[in-house]
Design goal:
Blueprint (H helix, E strand, L loop, with lengths): L1 E3 L2 H12 L6 H19 L8 E6 L2 H16 L3 E6 L7 H9 L3 E3 L8 E5 L11 H8 L13 E5 L27 E5 L11 H5 L1 E5 L13 E3 L2 H7 L14 E5 L6 H12 L5 E5 L3 H7 L4 E3 L10 E4 L7 H12 L4 E3 L2 H6 L5 H5 L5 E3 L3 H8 L7 H12 L2 E4 L5 E3 L5 E3 L12 H14 L4 H20 L6 H16 L4 H7 L2
């Protein structure tokens, strides 16, 4: 998992590292890494030599990084112009380096711009861009390069104007984001929360991390961690010669109803794509579930379902007395539980609080923002990580807060973010699929936070895979899960066996 660090931790690490280095070394490393990435981008647009580069330069070290990177590009033959937002407070040494390399100062953007470096505000900024800078940021989409295409925008460390520690984005008086929208962000030394969570994350574009030697100096606990494919591959349960359906785990689903049979079918579909060896279903949609998934063992009630290693409850269950009784039965089981949709609604009035408090087995809740608000009494807010951890501590449960960048929080204060999400998943029934897959992972023995992170990651990939074939529906996501999970379950050496069999 990739660690993500708060500004204070990054500042402390920078101070510790700089005390061991000659003055200016850290900025030189950052500028060199930034210039290398910019050179690659210019190479795709006609070459570095003759490339038209615009530097948007604020005050402080972020502006210095930008000026020194501009000097690198100017020495390679790029035509580099610098627009200083506060000329009296520009980084003096960086400005001198740019001028010595042939760069020039301008008071307005040139007519032709291939590449824009956003060095307006770094990690020390707060409150969004001021009016002049915000108008300049909004105008970037109008700049065109030598090839006639829109100028490529590169953010220096973070997109200017974002709330670095929370991923929030302040709005201007006109309602626009008071921040730069970048195509690429070159981050120095460490990922920051705004690059991976909240409305700021999409503004960062493609994020590239430049190693400036900060790693050994980053101490303490990261703000959160980003799930990677290697994590998912390492956590996925492996089959062996002694594996059979019961040792792989059995997951039970109390989802759907006669009114909402689709929720049952979709959640079961998600569970069947997971690693467990058997799926049991209990509910009013049993006939439809068995018709579409004949391998499932189905009953009418949780009490009749038989033994399972985890339960999924809530998707399409309803909120009447019968649904409440089924939720009570699920909470009484001494196994991990996933609570989704209607199950979350049934928790709001507090009548089941005793069942939650008396449980020893893990609980994972999967709210979207509106369900979070009903459970917590307030919206997640601009700091989605803090909101998720607050609800996790209050419920003593792992919380999976759905969104474009799904956040997972544990009762003991650990947080994770999923990078694979896609807006294509914002359609009815996809959450049912996610709940089923998550339950299957729990039943297979994964820890709650790992099961949640793994399910969110694969669910996001499935949404992207499904989108390749057109508009996405929940059944498309179920089908795509098998495609994205296939590399995790392929038998090692299968190709060698095929070769030997001719």
């Amino acid at each position: 998992m990739k660690p993500v660090w708060r500004v204070a931790d990054v500042r402390a690490a920078e101070a510790g590292l700089m005390a061991t280095l000659p003055p200016g070394t850290l900025m030189a490393r950052a500028a060199a890494g930034l210039a290398r990435r910019c050179a690659l981008l210019l190479a795709d647009r006609g070459g570095v030599y003759g490339g038209r580069v615009l530097l948007l330069v604020g005050t402080g070290d972020n502006g210095g990084d930008t000026l020194y990177a501009g000097a690198h590009l100017a020495r390679r033959g790029a035509a580099v112009s610098a627009l200083l937002l506060n000329p009296g407070r520009a980084h003096a040494a960086g400005l001198a380096a740019l001028r010595a390399a042939g760069g020039r100062l301008v008071d307005r953007p040139p007519a032709i711009v291939d590449l824009v470096l956003d060095g307006i505000v770094g990690i020390g900024g707060s409150g969004g861009l001021r009016e002049t800078a915000e108008q300049l940021a909004a105008s970037l989409v109008r700049h065109r390069g030598r090839d006639g295409g829109r100028a490529t925008v590169v953010a220096v460390d973070v997109p200017s104007g974002v709330a670095v520690d929370t991923g929030g984005v302040p709005l201007s008086a006109s309602g626009r984001p008071a921040a730069v929208r970048a195509d690429v962000t070159v981050a120095f030394g460490a990922l920051k929360p705004a690059l991976v969570i909240g409305p700021a994350a999409p503004l960062a574009g493609q994020v590239e991390l430049v190693d400036i030697g900060l790693g050994p100096w980053l101490r303490g606990t990261p703000a959160l961690r980003v799930t990677e494919w290697s994590d998912v591959a390492g956590w996925w349960p492996r089959l062996g010669p002694a594996s059979e359906k019961y040792t792989r785990g059995v997951v039970g689903l109390a989802t759907g109803s006669r009114t909402y049979p689709g929720a049952a079918v979709l959640s079961v579909g998600g569970a069947l794509a997971g690693p467990t060896g058997l799926v049991r279903y209990a509910g009013g949609a049993r006939d439809e579930v068995v018709r579409q998934h004949p391998s499932v063992i189905a009953t009418d009630r949780v009490a009749d379902a038989g033994r399972v290693q985890a339960w999924v409850c809530g998707s399409g269950l309803g909120t009447g007395e019968e649904a409440t009784a089924e939720l009570r039965a699920v909470l009484a089981a001494p196994v991990p539980v996933v609570l989704d949709a209607d199950a979350l609604t049934l928790l709001v009035d507090g009548s089941l609080a005793d069942r939650l408090r008396n449980r020893d087995a893990p609980i994972v809740v999967t709210p979207h923002d509106r369900e979070f608000t009903r459970l917590c009494g307030e919206e997640p807010g601009a700091d989605r990580v803090a909101g998720t951890l607050r609800l996790a501590a209050w419920m003593n449960a792992t919380v999976l807060l759905k969104g474009d960048r799904t956040v997972i929080g544990t009762p003991d204060g650990r947080a994770y973010v999923n990078p694979s999400g896609s807006p294509t998943l914002a359609t009815g029934g996809t959450g049912d699929v996610l709940a089923g897959l998550l339950g299957s992972l729990l039943a297979a023995g994964l820890a709650p936070e790992r099961a949640a992170a793994c399910a969110a990651y694969l669910h996001g990939l499935a949404g992207r895979e499904a989108a390749r074939r057109g508009p996405v529906t929940a059944p498309d996501v179920v089908a795509a899960l098998r495609t994205v999970i296939a590399p995790l379950v392929g038998e090692p050496g299968l190709a060698d066996h095929r070769d030997r069999m001719g």
